Predict the 3D structure of the following.
Amino acid sequence: MAAIIISDPTRTTRPRKATAESLWSRWLIISIAVGFMGLMFVLPLVIIFQEAFRKGWEGFVQAFDDRATTHAIWLTLKVAAITVPLNTLFGLAAAWCISRFQFRGRRFLSSLIELPLWVSPVIAGMVYVLLFGAQGLFGPALKEHGIKIIFALPGIVLSTIFVTFTFVARVLAPQMEAQGQAEEEAAMTLGANGWQMFWRVTLPKIKWGLLYGIILCNARSMGEFGAVSVVSGHIRNKTNTVPLHIEVLYNEYQFVPAFAVASVLALLALVTLILKTLTTTQRGAA
Amino acid sequence: MTRPRHVLPGFKLSLGFTITYLSLIVLFPLSMLVWKATSGGWEHMLDTLTQARVVSSLKLSFGTAFAAALVNSVFGLVTAWALERYSFPGRRLLDAMVDLPFALPTAVAGIALVTLYAPNGWIGSWLAQHDIKAAYAPLGITIALTFVGFPFVVRTLQPVIADLSMDVEEAAACLGANRWQTLTRVVFPALLPSTLAGMTLAFGRAVGEYGSVVFISGNLPFKTEIAPLLITMRLEEYDYSGAATIGVVMLAASFTILLLSNLLAQWSRNRTGR
């Protein structure tokens, strides 16, 4: 059907010609778009898998038979497992108060929530070094009590929370605002308490948007590089997450292992895109 | 009992949690940055910011980010138009692919791009034949920043194009305009604010970008060293106030971008009457 419209625009029922570009300019525009995205997006994806399988399936599998690699994968999973639930909770709270209530400073608050998205990841890491690093504000006090935040898991988690801070709230707030609050008000009128209303009315309404926000938050938390790189200290088998481990492998000229590990993250990105498309369709249908 | 101010429950709980979490994770740490940068006094700040190495890294970061945003505004507009107005095989796939830079970790994008554009890479070897150096040069940085900023332009423009009223285009055609005239005089002015808004966002994302750039840039001081990289170098040298000072400049840029994009969104709403 789609192909018919392009190949013969005169046959459509509506008189399209006056508000549509000529056939060849359509093709030109489509070719530019496809060509640009092919060059910028598809080619990098192709090269990742090409390099990962340069030495065949065996070379690929061998890359994961390495203690540092498995440790990095575990660490990344751990970081995401802490970060995503916390930011989901925050996203729900932030979206609820922004979309359901009018108060002074509401727009300012929602701008502040957007802020971490525009702050350089390096700054997101640096601020925690300034707070908890050896020469940071709380550095001496932490050292006295033997608590390690920088160059350890807590610092990695904190900086990851910073960079993925916005995602859930950013997806949910506009969606909840658009959906309105009539159902919630009805539930309250019918005698539900706050939590009943949330679990039985609000959550089913927003579930696809929530899932989408969580997916984005998860993808970024597993893939964060800049912020984590500043706070982690690159200690092998201790504080190297998967993206940092890729950097180490790459700088050691271990290209096949580097791309093999990278291809797993690329696969995760593709799954994220598929889930994103599915949840968007669901949100459109809801 | 006093009358509740709101119909729905949870205002105090959700607002309290939001503000506490926001303050602990974002606002307090960021204020530390400003405090650390200014603790050495204005002169010290000015000293840091006038160092040749700092100046050239800031120039490079802002310059390449602007170039990338410019490239993205052109290709983003074309792509958003194709995705919203035409139906062609693979349109949905293309639409889904636009978000790739959001989903693909920056380090992964970084090593993929440098492998493509290195002098022995698929594209790099072709460019080398024409005496163009992409990897380890500002061009390579611009390419990486174009990659990360692209979705912002497309995703900002798509809903605006979808909401453009056909009436105006029909009216222009009825009044004798040809398609090119309609596009340049009617459609494009309506899309200008959101194109600029998307461009601002792409610039904002690009200027602080680190992961996808450090592999392709070569990281030569004065030549291909971006500002975020210089910050990490200063941190490794324990020059916290120097790092914080560069950070404050970048933070100021972030605030400006946030403000500017809000103003542009407002302008777009006024112009398209939404």
Summary: The radius of gyration of chain B is 23 Å.
